[in-house]
Amino acid sequence: MNSSISSGGPGKNPVRMAVLLTVLAIIVILLIYYQTTWSMVATWHRSETYAHGFLILPFVIYMIWVKRHSIGMLKQQPSPTALIGLCMLGFLWLVAELASVQVVTQYALVAMLPLTVAVILGYRIMLAMAFPLTYLFFAVPFGDVLIPPLINFTADFTVWALQLSGIPVYREGTYFSLPTGNWSVVEACSGLRYLIASVTLGTLYAYLTYRSLNRRIIFIALSIIIPIIANAVRAYLIVMTGHLSDMTIAVGVDHLIYGWIFFGLVMLMLFWIGAFWREDVEDKNDVYPEQMKPGMMQNEATTIRTTIFASCAVIAVGLIWPTYAVYLDSDSEKKGYASFDLMLPEYKWQSSERPVSSWEPVYVGSPEKFSRHYVNKENNHVSLFITYYPIQRQGDELISSGNILVPEMDLIWRIIDETKASVKISSKVIEVRQTQLKSLETNLLIWRWYMLGENEETTSPYIAKMILAKNKLLTGEEGGAEIIIAAPYNVNPDEAEFVLKQFLTDTLPGISSGLMELSRSDT
Questions:
Q1: Each residue of 406-458: pLDDT tens digit?
Q2: Which of 204, 282, 365, 449 could serve as 286's disulfide partner, Cβ 3.0–4.6 Å?
Q3: Can you name the residues that pair with 176 across neighbouring β-strands?
Q4: Would 289 be classed as within a structural domain?
């Protein structure tokens, strides 16, 4: 019998001690980054879409337990080089924390856990547990970014299927009208919950049911594709049911219930079909994969002192980045900022008490807000909204899912179209995000873009986050603003486009210089 296993109790067994220290190191890492850890748990509790996160750890423990015998035959050999990866992930976490990109901080934290295993137990054991450790990434509540494309696909498919069925449809964005009533594809109809549930369960099913990599990949791919298509079919069937019943069936909460029943049947069929190709017989390479051939089995145990040193190194590296983040955070708290005001020349555009509409953008937190309405000699009206965040924190930041033009279930306004446009102002070309809004009384064309630091402009929220992280890390500057201008039009958006371009030609230099001065004053 191997000496490392036959030695005394748990306290004298180096292998068991190594496993215990690994578990403790993982717990300490999660506690060091407790805010990131809690952000995941809070999302699981708050959102039904990500409630599966509570099941991920039990699934992972079960998968490791199933392979415990083959894993236990491997030699424990701490790998200090994995500390380099931990350092890189820690820096990534710091950058994401500075930019308030919560999902990246969560992925960085979860990625630290396999490397913690590598540092203490070694690469071979980490690779033997590669799938269970990779499965931990499903605990990260990621997917909101997929909602817009899923909504658009569902709307496109539903309208196409309705037209194919001979039903006339009038569509504006994700809203469409039938002779019997009006419909819209909203977030709850995107199918994100179905997709996440399918991929999470499908990946686990593929791992437990198949042995070959090809079959696992094919089944996982099917668990991605099928729920997307099934959700689109579900939406079409619900609209058809409502249409044929003269809007008496499937128009309220009941259509969500029908959706889950339909999805359950689809997933049951997927797993039933997948069972025909199951691989129950394990071959030698499954028990002893390439990284864990019998020749690599443990013949001597790493000393407890070495294991303790590796565990302490993991914790020390993990402490560096949150400590530095706290230092940067305390430094920014000492800063003050000037009161926000913006004086634009009024020789071509005069301030007006009359807004172009009742619409205003929605922002989270407590930013400084500037809104003013202008009119020129040709009686063209423009509204200007500038929202400035001098100090950005989670929930009080420029780039946030809570900063929106129109709430999803708004009773007055709806988004008709969104595109990007390049606008030439004098000798300068600026990129803007162009949005068409519509109410019963008014059509609006909106241009908006971000300005961070000293005249760094972008329309991309992702680039804006990177600029913010760079500024906070290198200069400590964290101010940022969103600039929005809006003009009404009757029929064609080109009417408003001409007015907005004229307004920017006259006022953009004043807007830019005013924000630059405000940025310099935040010291």
A1: 987 788 999 988 999 988 887 788 899 999 999 988 999 999 999 987 778 99
A2: 282
A3: 171, 183
A4: no
Q: Are residues 175 and 62 in the same domain?
A: no
DSSP states of 477-502 as a string? Answer: ---EEEEEEEEEESS-HHHHHHHHHH
Per-residue tokens: 408: 């999803």
**Tell me, what amino acid is at 456?**
E
User: Residue 80: what pLDDT?
Assistant: 93
Question: Domain range for residue 212?
Answer: 145-277
Q: Does 284 reside within a domain?
A: no
Q: Which pTM was predicted?
A: 0.82
**How many beta carbons lie within 10 A of that of residue 273, not counting itself?**
11
Distance CA(417)–CA(171), nearest Å, equals 11
Same domain assignment for residues 99 and 188: no
The predicted pLDDT at position 5 comes to: 36
The answer to whether residues 315 and 388 belong to one domain is no
Beta bridge mates, 447: 434, 485
Looking at 73-191, list the stretches that DSSP marks H as alpha helix, in order from N- to C-terminal side. Answer: 82-98, 102-121, 123-128, 130-135, 147-164
**Conformational region of residue 94, where left means phi above 0, alpha means psi within -120 to 50, and beta covers everything else:** alpha
Using alpha carbons only, how large is the chain's radius of gyration in Å?
A: 28
